[in-house]
Specification:
heterodimer; A: alpha/beta; globular; B: 4% strand; Amidase_dom (chain A); ligase (chain A); GatA (chain A); Amidase (chain A); glutaminyl-tRNA synthase (glutamine-hydrolyzing) activity (chain A)
Amino acid sequence: GCPKRGLRSQVSAALKEGRVTPTELCQRCLALIRSTKFLNAYITVAEETALKQAEEAEERYKRGQPLGILDGIPIAVKDNFNTAGIETTCASNMLKGYISPYNATVVQKLLDQGAVLLGKTNLDEFAMGSGSTDGVFGPVRNPWSYSRQYKEKSVPKSHSEDKEFNWVITGGSSGGSAAAVSSFTCFAALGSDTGGSTRNPAAHCGVVGLKPTYGLISRHGLIPLVNSMDVPGILTRSVDDAAVLLGSLAGHDPKDSTTVQDNFKPFELPNLTDVSKLSIGIPKEYNAPGLSSEILALWSKAADLFKNAGAKVVEVSLPHTRYSIVCYHVLCTAEVASNMARFDGLEYGHRSDAKESTESMYATTRREGFNDVVRGRILSGNYFLLKQNYEKYFVKAQKVRRLIANDFVKVFRSGVDILLTPTTLSDAAPYMEFIQEDNRTRSAQDDILTQADTCAGLPAVNVPTALSERGLPVGLQFIGRSFQEKQLLTVAKWFEKQVQFPVIQLEEVKRHDNDVFHHQKSASFS
Amino acid sequence: QKVSVEVLDHLEHLALVDFRDSEGVERLQKAIQFADQLHVVNTDGVEPMDSVLEDRWCLYLREDNVTEGNCTKELLENAREKVEEYFVAPPGNIPLPKLEERDSFLQGS
């Protein structure tokens, strides 16, 4: 029958048993990256180093000594993580040509376990945006734009090239990573999540997107946006795979003082059969303005699913939800203003030719290096941090942040285990429509469902749920208690099994390389 | 209220990025307007939250032992202008010109 995505022992077992070698796997992924170049998911493809890593993995498998479940598994990394010897651009002119001298901790951990780093994925410039459309290397295209499911639902047009106009966005800012996983070019990808940047594109691209609890995974080497909210994100094709990645990445890092010191024990997810002891909370404020009736219906259906299976499903209230976007806006721009100050052209990155003075060099470097979105946030942030505004805006936002976090504490204390919410307001918009609105308005609209829990630092995961009327993925989000990823993912896995989200039928890929597609389609790696 | 020209100028000096045009200024105005929504929230008696980990974790100081370093070469590699082991900067202590003199000074792209 159809291979189920949640089953363990797929590619990893195949590697162990020698049914496929790491180099074969790597080559197939590289070939697929080449044939899906039009997606623009990758900024850099590290072909040589990837093949070398694959060869080393192969040697280990031959000796019967693989490093673990990730040995030989091709992965991709969002281009705001430092990767030694490989260009790290953050999709910005400011860092074009910047070759990292070190690996981010999460990248190092993956490499230490034998993962094969295929390349760096595309994003919104400096991870600011919710479309993956605002980077200097151009927008990322959602692989589902080219799926049979989407094409069947599209109104047929007269010319054959109209598919160029109809392509939809991936969401953002980790759109490249989401597209890479969704189109089978890798088995897992790293993203980052500050206001939804992993979960949003995961929902639009039909993949699992996990944002762990703040403080669980090291941010060392992740080029920071908002130090108090950023979290490395995990994108995979199944919840089990997300748990495997989490297990290999979580834990205290002496190089990141915001990681908790508690011992983290990797876990395998049980196959939950009895949900009668579960209490699912449905936050009423997440029925936000602009939520499509389709997603509202899906959310309701999901709640019923839990209810009919015996779980307790209750409506709850997170009264400060609608202020989370404003709170985030102030805190984000303020921290961005501070974090972007490091880009002055002196030690690394772009440097302008201005020679009159240090200040003029700094100013022109930053003028040339940053796009409008980044510059806008820096200026806003500086405004909120002015002495006359500090209390009124920055401190005020910090107080509101506490109220938002307390909302969640109250709800979880009342006996609710997991919250179930939509991830996005609608399915993916066509690119031409999306760019009609400016970045900040878009982010304000789109982030509303993924924002509040980031303010509170809670773990959350997008699980692909169903296809919309347009044939595009829609996901639902589960939010859990701090550091309770095992419970969160266990419930998510149960839900994933119930909904049986369809596999993407990628026409384009089929046409180019039948063999490659066939193998990739059936495999989750764990 | 509109943001005064003095504040705009001050922001450009602080941030070392420019508004570029009226659209940039408009963007700031909208951002402020958006942020003003915070003021309807009652935060009496509420402490500002610096970190979600405030209960769980004490920022600790590690032992003052040298664990890494000697990476001068790597650190200099990405700098465009350097001399021996120095990063080279244009002369400092020259403030950016005031708004009126601006156009001729910043020959940006």
